[in-house]
Amino acid sequence: MKQLIFSTFLFLFSLSLIAEDGSRLWLRFSETNAQANVTVSSRNNRHASTDVARQELTDHWQGQPIELRIDRRLNHLKDGYQIKGNRDRITVSAAQEVGLLYGAYHLLRLQETGADISNLDVTEIPSFDVRILNHWDNLNRTIERGYAGHSLWLWNELPHTLSPRYQEYARANASIGINATVINSVNANPRILTDEYLEKVKALADVFRPYGVRMYLSVNFASPSVIGGLENSDPHNPDVQRWWKNKVNDIYKLIPDFGGFLVKANSEGQPGPHDYGRNHADGANMLADALQPHNGIVMWRAFVYEPEWGEDRASQAYNEFVPLDGEFRDNVIIQIKNGPIDFQPREPFSPLFGALRKTAGMLEFQITQEYLGFSYHLVFLAPQFKEALDSDTFSDGEGSTIAKITDGTLREQKVTAIAGVANIGEDANWCGHHFAQSNWYAFGRLAWNYNLSSEQIADEWIRMTFTDEPNFLEPVKDMMLTSWETAVNYMMPMGIHHIFAWNHHYGPEPWCYIPGARPDWLPRYYHNADTIGMGFDRTVTGSNNVAQYFPPLNEIFGNVNTVPEKFLLWFHHVPWDFKMKNGETMWDNLCYHYNEGMMQVRDYQKVWDRVGHYVDYERFRHVQSRLRTQSRDAIWWRDAVLLYFQTYSRRPIPFHLERPMNDLEDLKKIKLDWKHHN
Amino acid sequence: MKQLIFSTFLFLFSLSLIAEDGSRLWLRFSETNAQANVTVSSRNNRHASTDVARQELTDHWQGQPIELRIDRRLNHLKDGYQIKGNRDRITVSAAQEVGLLYGAYHLLRLQETGADISNLDVTEIPSFDVRILNHWDNLNRTIERGYAGHSLWLWNELPHTLSPRYQEYARANASIGINATVINSVNANPRILTDEYLEKVKALADVFRPYGVRMYLSVNFASPSVIGGLENSDPHNPDVQRWWKNKVNDIYKLIPDFGGFLVKANSEGQPGPHDYGRNHADGANMLADALQPHNGIVMWRAFVYEPEWGEDRASQAYNEFVPLDGEFRDNVIIQIKNGPIDFQPREPFSPLFGALRKTAGMLEFQITQEYLGFSYHLVFLAPQFKEALDSDTFSDGEGSTIAKITDGTLREQKVTAIAGVANIGEDANWCGHHFAQSNWYAFGRLAWNYNLSSEQIADEWIRMTFTDEPNFLEPVKDMMLTSWETAVNYMMPMGIHHIFAWNHHYGPEPWCYIPGARPDWLPRYYHNADTIGMGFDRTVTGSNNVAQYFPPLNEIFGNVNTVPEKFLLWFHHVPWDFKMKNGETMWDNLCYHYNEGMMQVRDYQKVWDRVGHYVDYERFRHVQSRLRTQSRDAIWWRDAVLLYFQTYSRRPIPFHLERPMNDLEDLKKIKLDWKHHN
In which element (H, E) is residue B105 found? Predict the structure, then answer.
């Protein structure tokens, strides 16, 4: 029987004549022989987005006739839509043309996932107004923390030559509801605002527009002085204010639906208002004032920390921004990373959420796997995104989840938004790892509707990307749904954070010491291992970061017996022999987590090999190979972390567990050339 | 409890103030406060060996008084001994002085292993007359296939400076009954026979003599022409014959008890009688004639194969030597490797054993782990040695084991002998791996008495080398006793052979192809993998090597249904789906063996970590580190072999087995610098 299956496997492989490079993403819509019957009834039936919607359905829809209808009375749907239909006819209604497009992709998704389409009554209103990707693409086409090749944007060719991938990119975003993009890195090159580059940006915006994807830009706060020739970039300098107004006006002449600016200021060496003795509100408001006449917005990042080392880094964003609460314009949104440090494998939520009561806030997720194995590890992030969205801040009593704070439910916001740092590059499969596509997909789907379950998102994505064969679907879905926890297990369980290597965030280097480096850039700052135990004391006896959380979380997090064990070492310095809920010591539990993570990856390998024959050979082999890398890396992590901390704990790894395969001294010699993993 | 044990562990570590480098081997005799009462009664009570025996006992014996007695009537014991004693007195008797020394070490071994010494009646007669180490040491102090540092012999310092290690070496050999050594490589540098070097050799022989270790030399057959200035080295040339006689006379003037020559001739580029149209008997006899007046012997190696590729390499030694049977002098012994190819992880026995009816033969084992993981892998070789010694050739009916053929039981031999290629070098611990010492020990013990069980040898060695703590002894003994089969499992199970890498014999390279290389130096020659199956057809439909075995072995080996499965692919080209005795296919069984080997090494790691606290920290850590290497290598082997043969078998590795951790293409890129593993 096994043999039969394997023979089939080979047979199927040989049938697959076209190399499957993954470039089609989840957009593998059926081709219809006869074109579908699609009609449009709206005042302007030649709107570009309507055209796309009609064309997609005409080409791929295999069911009953469809009417697309613009109805301005449906304004409460925002850019959402209604779908009503029976066996004979379906009507998609929306207040905005792009809503029809989203409705069209909804129908195609139903078709491709094998859903019942004989009786439809759907109303979809997006969770957030602005569902935006943040590209960390540099103008030289490298991508910071990008692991799928160089940037999609071919600046040298723009604006005159337009790669077909620009449109494919916009289409993929539209298909999952993403309606905005910041195409350049937050460490922004001021040249993006020169006339030369704005012409190129306009060309891209024109390609994106039919798909409802609005253009935003990261701007360098020092642009007025660097490219404007001004003496400084002080937000109180009228020349500077004028320079920005003029620049914004120029942009809107080229791109009338331009969305606004994303700003990283006074963080990690970037210029900002502090350079002139001004605060973040001064800086953000100046830009907001320039954008306001055009309905543009400023997304101002809360990821800031002092250039000189001082207080607990986890506390700094809160301390910086809470005092400014109420001082920001209403077209400024503070963009806050999900956790208080920096996209670690798992963090508790940032205490800024809920604490800003008179200032709009938004979540920033990292879709690119900077701290989760780059594009080498299979890690499905929907559960991570959900954990953040569902985190209860207690800011307005129980149920004050981050989702409800940032979507406008609990607090009025002029604009609501959610951002994800993109994992997209020039690789044929867009994201490096075929399964990394699912994180782009998951971000889009949750930005549209954060109530979707991870399970549903995985289910949809697998059916559309691979197959709906249950023998494939179920085990692969299990693999995806457990994969984040697995990665946390073999990298940083129990609240451990930032024990990555100095020159890359791929592998472990808990021992890392660089003479002269600021302490909070070194792992020791975070793990604090000694012969007593390990962990970061953020209770009242330590940095008192717990005080930034609303009651009762300050108490829960601050008590070693009530803190969720997944955050134990985030908030506490805990003795090696501390008894955990399962009755075993902290040290033994640490060993179990790393062992478990390693064994789980081995299970994924078994799953993938077993179901491989349901998919094309190319993607099978590619994923198989990456799982092998992940399996080796899980061993690397387990060995490095356990052997290093063992020098402090002086306890054996429980003897029934598989033993380390590497010597600590050998592991310390590993120095990855980061470029190899880019 | 676990914690308690680990604390004890650390406590004990801190007590071990003297770094334990393993240099004391198994010779960790107790020190007595009061000297033991040892008397000697012999005509020459000042014989050097008697002195050593008396001194060893005086220093280390803690029991009743001992009398050492030479009794020439005990000649039937050869260099063996009798021990008789009660609680009050022990008498050690021997016909030769060295017999007293062996008896002394016997007593100390009893004492150190905790045996009952209150009532002794022991008679020991060695299994073989000559129990000899073959060093493959070059005069430049590199060692061919040596993995424990450079050669012990400091040629530049000799003869005037004598390293203390020469005596320690001789003592270690004497303690296990080894009575002879060839100190230079079989790929012999002719300079060893120059006066300059013979003076150095004499100095070593003088150190070895009190310990009963006789000196032998490897000689280069072309010595007469290379260093003697003769026109050629033709054995029929009277000048050549005279040169050898004179050279031998010179040697005996320096070393009166010189043992004889070891010769590798017409093999792998070495000169030999074939260079002059003479045969091996012509060559060996010429040297034998020169040595005969001094009672010296020639050990002539059967490891020969044609410089041009032709017949099955496994058949060549037989075809070369059997026609010469009866033509050799009685002081010539043909030295035959245990298997017909070359010290592979497991081989069937060489068919030359038993086939030479009128010529003396001897076994050559390889103690150094050329094909068994160098000094990086823990592999206890007693079971391998035993499997060869116990192999039944059926040459004289059932029970015609190689042991009984080569020890003179079944055939008269003037001299009986057994050789082992040494694993000894300059490393502090002598053998690279602490456990590799056990192979030196096992060779000596089996050369003395091949009826000893592997279990008994391991038991003695562990007690003397580490501890007799049962919680250590039993699991470590289990580990040792299974370790050879384990290595065979992860390297070359089921009769696979010689799929090693081209430039080293450490790792796998079954795909190795070197343009222009002779086929029988390439793995493909041996594995013959294709889409049907794999293995070497040595049956009548193939090379018919099976015909070299005596009935019924030719039938048993020649039939795919009766051949022992451990030799299946040695003798047969077997389809991937061939059903084996467990009902599963050949391919699946191959996968099971590799998986089993890998898992067994992981078990050894668990064992070692668990019992580590019973031994000193230095040896614990050293062995722990090597086991980690072995564990990684087992994965390397499994992945390389299974992924490579899978390209032929086109079958899945059974899905419940752990999946490969490496990609075949990556493994193919591994090119070890052999020197790193020397």
Answer: helix B97-112
Same domain, yes or no: B237 and B312: yes
Is B370 noted as a catalytic residue in this protein? Answer: yes
The mean of the pLDDT values for chain B is 94
Looking at the DSSP bridge assignments, the partners of residue B217 are B261
Q: Of B6, B625, B652, which has the smallest distance from its Cβ to A6's Cβ?
A: B652
Residue A268 appears among annotated catalytic residues: yes
Dihedral, CA atoms, B568, B570, B571, B575, nearest 10 degrees? 60
Band of residue B41 on the pLDDT scale cut at 50, 70, 90: confident
Domain boundary residue, one of A400, A424, A452 = A452
Q: How far is B315 from chain A (nearest CA, A)?
A: 37
* Nearest-by-Cβ selection for A658 from B602, B627, B660: B602
Q: B100-136 pLDDT, tens per residue?
A: 999 999 999 999 999 999 999 999 999 999 999 999 9
Least confident of A4-18, B101-115, B289-303, B374-388: A4-18
Number of structural domains found in chain B? 3
Quote the ipTM score.
0.91
- Domain of residue A347, residue span: 130-452
Distance of CA B54 to the CA centre of its chain: 30
Residues of B in contact with A11 (CB under 8 A): none
Strand partners, B401: B392
- Looking at B79, B106, B124, the residue that finishes a domain is B124
d(CA A282, CA B459): 81
- Please give the C-alpha separations between residue A138 and each of A198, A218, A301, B546, in angstroms, as whole numbers: 15, 11, 18, 70
Strands (E), B314-453: 332-337, 360-366, 417-421
Q: Which range is least confidently modeled, A259-273, A279-293, B455-469, B512-526?
A: B512-526
Structural contact between residues A213 and A174, judged by C-beta atoms closer than 8 angstroms: yes
Is A537 a residue of the active site? Answer: no
The answer to the question of residue B417 being in a domain is: yes
| pLDDT score of A278 more than 60 | yes
* Binding-site residues on chain B for chain A (CB distance < 8 A): 2-3, 5-6, 9-10, 577, 585, 602, 605-606, 609-610, 625, 627-628, 631-632, 635, 650-656, 658-663
- Measured between CA atoms, the residue of chain A closest to residue B621 is A663
Three-state secondary structure along A302-334? CCCCCCCCCCCHHHHHHHHHHHHCCCCCCCEEE
What is the rounded average pLDDT for all residues in chain A? Answer: 94
> A168 with A93, same domain?
no
Q: Please indicate, yes or no, whether residues B210 and B304 belong to a single structural domain of this protein.
A: yes
**Confidence grade of residue A676 (pLDDT, cut at 50, 70, 90):** very low
Which residues on adjacent β-strands are paired with residue B182?
Answer: B134, B216
- The pLDDT value recorded for residue B517 is 87
Residue A555 reports pLDDT greater than 70:
yes
Check residue B30 and report its DSSP letter: P
Chain A CA closest to residue B577: A3
Looking at the fold, whether A199 and A299 belong to one and the same domain comes out as yes
A68-80 average pLDDT score: 96
Please identify which residue in the block is written with the tokens 């000899």. B132
* Structural domain includes residue A195: yes
The answer to the question of residue A144 being in a domain is yes
- Band (pLDDT 50/70/90 cuts) for residue B304 is confident
pLDDT band of residue A678 (cuts 50, 70, 90) is very low
Q: What is the CATH number of the domain that holds B119?
A: 3.30.379.10
Contacting residues of A for B654, CB less than 8 Å apart: 2
- Which of the residues B661, B666, B668, B670 would you substitute to probe the A interface, choosing the one with the greatest number of A C-beta atoms within 10 Å? B661
User: Structure tokens of A490?
Assistant: 């073999």
**Does any domain span residue A119?**
yes
Nearest CB partner across the interface for B660, out of A6, A10, A628? A628
pLDDT digits (tens, 9 = 90+) for B351-400: 999 999 999 999 999 999 999 999 999 999 999 999 999 999 999 999 99
**Distance from chain centroid for Cα A36:** 36
